[in-house]
């Protein structure tokens, strides 16, 4: 029951409903009267590995990208509105999975994506600290940083000469510092 209550508390009341048409603002009233039944549905789904069919459906809403021509399909991004009850169960599963991964030390120390209280800023701090540590050690410790992205991402961010990245290993091999 605690897992369900914690998941309910974290649900966002501003989210639009999916095909089940359960509006979250109605949620707290609804949940008080049927927590036990809801847990039975979740437990049955968990035990059998099956979801109610309506939970597998979504309502897809096309959203126009900023400053794009509305007459071209490629200028829209799809938003899928999924079942409110399915989102609630996903929260419970996510919490169980994250707890298991942390307790069993399955996440690398430097894994920051998709973890609470971690961010890409942490990664920048770790990189910066590794560079500083490398220069302070004698003989100098070698620090290599690899940044990977796709050509499409570079184009989206306005990078014109993306082919220079293919020369990165060659350029790094020729430069020594310290």
UniProtKB/TrEMBL annotation:
Q: Which domain of life is it from?
A: Eukaryota
Keyword terms of this UniProt record: Nucleotidyltransferase, RNA-directed DNA polymerase, Transferase
- Molecular function GO terms recorded: RNA-directed DNA polymerase activity
Span of domain Reverse transcriptase: 66-133
Cross-referenced InterPro entries, in alphabetical order?
A: DNA/RNA_pol_sf, RT_dom
Q: Name one Pfam family in it.
A: RVT_1
Mind telling me which PANTHER family this protein's record contains?
REVERSE TRANSCRIPTASES (PTHR19446)
Return the protein name: Reverse transcriptase domain-containing protein
Species = Trichonephila clavipes
């Amino acid at each position: 029951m605690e897992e369900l209550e914690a998941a309910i508390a974290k649900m966002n009341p501003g989210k639009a409903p999916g095909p089940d048409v359960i509006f979250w603002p109605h949620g707290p009233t609804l949940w008080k009267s049927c927590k036990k039944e809801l847990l039975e549905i979740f437990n049955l789904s968990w035990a059998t590995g099956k979801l109610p069919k309506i939970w597998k459906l979504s309502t897809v809403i096309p959203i126009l990208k900023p400053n794009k021509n509305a007459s071209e399909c490629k200028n829209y991004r799809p938003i899928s509105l999924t079942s409110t009850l399915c989102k609630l169960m996903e929260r419970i599963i996510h919490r169980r999975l994250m707890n298991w991964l942390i307790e069993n030390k399955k996440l690398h120390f430097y894994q920051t994506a998709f973890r609470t209280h971690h961010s890409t800023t942490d990664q920048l701090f770790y990189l910066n600290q590794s560079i500083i540590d490398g220069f302070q050690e004698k003989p100098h410790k070698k620090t290599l940083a690899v940044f990977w992205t796709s050509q499409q991402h570079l184009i989206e961010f306005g990078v014109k000469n993306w082919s220079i990245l293919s020369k990165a290993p060659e350029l790094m091999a020729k430069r020594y510092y310290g």
